[in-house]
Amino acid sequence: MAPSLTRRLIALGSSDPERAERFLGAPELAGIDEDILLEGLSVAPDPDGAITALVRLLSRDPGLRDVVEAGLPRSEPLFRLLGASEALADFLIRRPEHLDVFDQTPSAEPLGAEPAMLRASLLRAVGADPAARHPVAARTGSEAYEALRVRYRRHLCELAIRDLGAASPLDFLPTAAAELADLASAALEAGLAVARAEASAAFGAEAVNAVVLSVIGMGKCGARELNYISDVDVVYVVDGDGGAADDTEAVRIGTVLATGLTRAVSGTAREPALWQVDANLRPEGKDGPLVRTLDSHLAYYDRWAQSWEFQALLKARWIAGDGELGRRYEASVAPLVWASAGREGFVESVQAMRRRVTEHIPAAEADRQIKLGVGGLRDVEFTVQLLQLVHGRTDETLRVRDTTSAIAALAAGGYIGRNAAAEFDVSYRRLRLLEHRIQLSHLRRTHLMPVKEDALRALARAVQGVMDSSKASPESLLESWHRTKRSVRELHQRIFYRPLLNSVANLSPEEATLSPEAAQGRLAALGYRDPKGAMRHIEALTAGVSRRAALQRQLLPVLLDWLAQGVDPDGGLLAFRRVSEALGTTHWYLGMLRDSAAAAERLCHILSNSRLMADLLEVSPESVAWLGHERDLVPVPLEAQWQEIQSKISRHEESTARMRLVRLIRRREILRVAIADSAGLLDQDSVGRALADADQAAVLGALRVAEDHAKASGPLLTRVLVVAMGRQGGREIGYGSDADVMYVHRALPDADPGAAQKQAKEIVTTLSGLLTQPLKPAVLAERVLQLDADLRPEGKSGPLVRSLESFAEYYRRWALVWEWQALLRARPMAGDEGLAADFMELVDSVRYPEELSQADIREIRRIKARVEAERLPRGADPSRHLKLGRGGLSDVEWLVQFLQLQHAARHPELRTTSTLGALDAAAGLGLIPDGEAALLADAWRLASRIRSANVIWTGRASDMLPASRRDLEAVARWCGYAPGQASALEERYLQLTRRTRHVFEERFYANGS
């Protein structure tokens, strides 16, 4: 029994067989054999779209029945085009006089149209003479625009028919892309002819004829690898013809010609616009003049151009207008292109090129992108163009414009391996073919893979060659696409980095081997500042026959790529070498590199962006194991650290040995917190608390050792308490924070007060020394914890440690308002719990006064002004000083503490040592508007984050927003900004602190309430 029509339509790929059946029964198809129609639909990528368009075409021109009734292969071009491009079907419905386009005989191995033929055809469409040096159209206005666009689309139909009928669309792709560029060039030539005719009406034919305009194609049009629909990037060059027009007049008329040309191809007319003409790659971009003389172009490139502008010129080619001027332009800019790799800023420009691979991709589109994203077309283009720029300085064979030719040239020159080049070329063609077929459907500028199943099925059929009899399906299409993306990403690393390894390790005769100079140039282009040193590290990592060397030869292309994405690739590579040498053949390390891409990438990110963490990992390489397990990056609670410290120091008697264990634990925990912070596992508040816990555990350990040391000379006479002050008291510290402290003691019963005071001083002096003095063996890469007791009563002039009674007497009789303020952040850190409770009871009675007098308020303001005037380092820019500068940490903290002193006695919510906690409470009480509180918190957090970032990046503390672009870039990345956004951080900080200072002045200097 023969299958039903519905089943046959479903088998052909129809997604709506009922609708297709209705169209098959349309009067326009009456009398046409059903089998012939179904046979035709069998070659249509979208049979539903094809049958709909066919019925509409027959209603416009019944003569098309002859083509349909002739069956395959005569009707094959018709069904393939109608099923692949709704937009071109609509064009033929609008313009049925062009249905003779289907009279051409299809070829499985088509050829491209000659550029001269396309140019002549488009010029004749507007009534211009192709043989004239400066063709002038006989038609103008909408009539000319319509004629130009109709002729363009006729040729586009011819190309699409050949493209869709190719046995191997991948082989034909470069030819199709070149013809699309030639067709666009011809359209611009015809548009210029129309513009000349229109300008002659305003300026006179003689004046217009005296102006020479050349159109330079950029991007894909310049490279002759254009899409079916794409903006056409251009640059305009103008000249007076033999001096008949001066430069000013030539630019004025040239601008009119360029504007008229654009109007001809993309302005309003009965026939829709072709595409947008984009001149934004011209000097100064949108802000620059549309048209310049050649001398003006060269003057700009000589004085003002940025590196990316020279790289954009890699594709520059004369495409329309005066050929002699266009060729002069090409010859003039070519040396600039190939010298760009040696220019200042080239590395930054390369990094910007790289960021464009993934930036600005909406989250909803990330998984559908063919052009952008990892494994997309831009990944291929970035790799190829960068290799051309690096090696084309000395090898002229690489100076080609289109991507497929460039890949072939790089392989022929030995810069990439032959096999890798072949794979890269095929992957690139596959991605471009997908892009072409998707755009051909509606002639819309898109780079997104369809979502709907019927669209995916039509695309899967459209990319097949005419000889391919395999069953196309959405699943097979997506699988092939994802495989291609993975291949592109892996090939990028193989192509770029594998030859570097081969140049030092002689890996394989089939792989490319670079000269030392070429290898170093390649590394320098990616940001390695010492390429010779980098090559030495690569050689050391890959030399020999050990398992480690073999694995690193396999992994280094990927690792070098990840390191190059950091701010300091050289430091990262050196640190990686040292870590690898320290861990040797440790099985877990090699296994982690091999099996955990996330851990290996995180390691490279850390080593190339943080000197502090790189130094710490070099001296404690076993901590690398944490990278493979996020559970190991959870901060260890204070109680657990203290328990570990007590256990370890109990096994040793000598103070130095005991303190080394304490300080090693602190160093370990700081590293743990930093790695977790870099991985985004901790928020800023959690980082502050975890670092404060590490410091507190160390102080607890040091106090225990100091007290045991005192016991060796006799019985303990007193109990000592270490009180944290400042940011340490608020548990809001950063990586570079010292510990502000005060020392309190209470003599034991029956102990002599004088002897107890003396012993207490010995204990705290020993404690401070234990945390800072050099040890043998040394605690390498340690951030030494300095204890600063300057906030004690009477400051440096007062005794280092006081008894509880002495504190009480001092605070009762002599305490100044700044000392009340300092106590707002007092918190017990280590020592006797009973003493801590009693001391905090005393402190609460002082730091939360019932009221502030006007004299107290004036004194607080006076001290703040004095701090600003005297403590800011000489020569420091107040707008960039994180602590004491305008709107910095000091402004926020003084304002919050001012509110606490005024109101905490009546509002217990304000009784906290945390700046942000108190600020939040103040807003909740209505003491400060929510918006202002949020602003102050943002400024305080950002300044604190930058302060920590300075330490993370350099390993040294700094209270300045970096002025160096490189340092600022590293700090910006730590603060969560994308690569290349250092200026955004700078602008954000300066804006926030400027507004914060305004709020501070309004609130801090308001009338006393």
Notes on the protein architecture:
With 1009 residues, this protein is mainly α. The chain is built from 43 helices and ten strands. The protein is 60% helix and 5% strand. Strands 1, 2, 3, 4 and 5 form a five-stranded mixed sheet that branches. Helix 34 links the parallel strand 7 (739-747) and strand 8 (787-788). The chain is elongated, with a radius of gyration of 37 Å. The mean pLDDT is 92.
Structural class: mainly alpha
Helix residue percentage = 55-70%
Q: Report the span from N to C terminus.
A: 97 Å
* Total number of helices: 43
How much beta, percentage-wise? Answer: 5-15%
Q: What is the 3D shape?
A: elongated
**pLDDT under 50 segments (min length 5)?**
none
Biggest β-sheet: count, sense, barrel?
5 strands, mixed
Radius of gyration: 37 Å
Mean pLDDT: 92
Nutshell version of this structure?
With 1009 residues, the protein is mainly alpha-helical. It contains 43 helices and ten strands.
Q: Would you spell out the secondary-structure blueprint of this structure?
A:
Blueprint: H1 5-12, H2 17-24, H3 34-41, H4 47-60, H5 65-69, H6 76-84, H7 86-94, H8 115-125, H9 141-164, H10 169-203, H11 205-209, E1 211-217, H12 219-222, E2 232-240, H13 247-266, E3 277-278, E4 291-293, H14 294-303, H15 307-312, E5 317-321, H16 323-339, H17 346-355, H18 377-391, H19 403-412, H20 418-442, H21 453-462, H22 474-505, H23 516-525, H24 531-542, H25 547-564, H26 569-583, H27 587-595, H28 597-609, H29 611-619, H30 638-649, H31 655-678, H32 684-711, E6 718-725, H33 726-729, E7 739-747, H34 753-772, E8 787-788, E9 801-803, H35 804-813, H36 817-823, E10 827-831, H37 833-847, H38 854-871, H39 889-903, H40 915-924, H41 930-954, H42 965-974, H43 982-1004
Parallel strand pairs: 2-3, 2-4, 7-8, 7-9
Antiparallel strand pairs: 1-2, 1-5, 6-7, 6-10
Helix pairs in contact: 1-2, 2-4, 4-6, 4-7, 6-9, 8-9, 8-10, 9-10, 10-13, 10-20, 18-19, 18-22, 18-23, 19-20, 20-22, 21-22, 22-23, 22-24, 22-25, 23-24, 24-26, 25-28, 26-28, 26-29, 30-31, 30-32, 31-32, 32-34, 35-37, 36-37, 39-40, 39-43, 40-41, 41-42, 41-43, 42-43
